[in-house]
Amino acid sequence: MDTEYWIAADKAHCWHPFTRQDEWVAGEPAEPLVLVAGEGAWLTDSEGRRYIDGNASIWTNVHGHNHPVINAAIAGQLEKVAHTSYLGFANPRASELAQRLCALFPPQSLERVFFSDDGSTAVECAVKMAIQYRLQTGEENRTEFIAFDQAYHGDTMGAAALGGVGAFFDRFRKLGFPVSHVAGLADLMALEEAALARTAAVIIEPLVQGVNQIRPWPAGMLRQLREWCDRHGVHLILDEVMTGFGRTGSMFACQREDVIPDFLCLAKGLTGGYLPMAATMVRGAIYDAFLGGAENAFYYGHSYTGNQLGCAAALASLDVFEQERTLAKIPAKVAQLQEGLARLADRYDVVHEVRQCGMVAGVELRGKAGERFAAADRTGEKVSLLARRHGLLTRSILDTLVIIPPLSIDRDEIDHMFRALEAAIHDYFQDETPA
Ligand SMILES: Cc1ncc(COP(=O)(O)O)c(C=O)c1O
Question: In the chain, what are the domains?
Answer without folding.
Answer: 33-63+325-428 (3.90.1150.10), 68-323 (3.40.640.10)
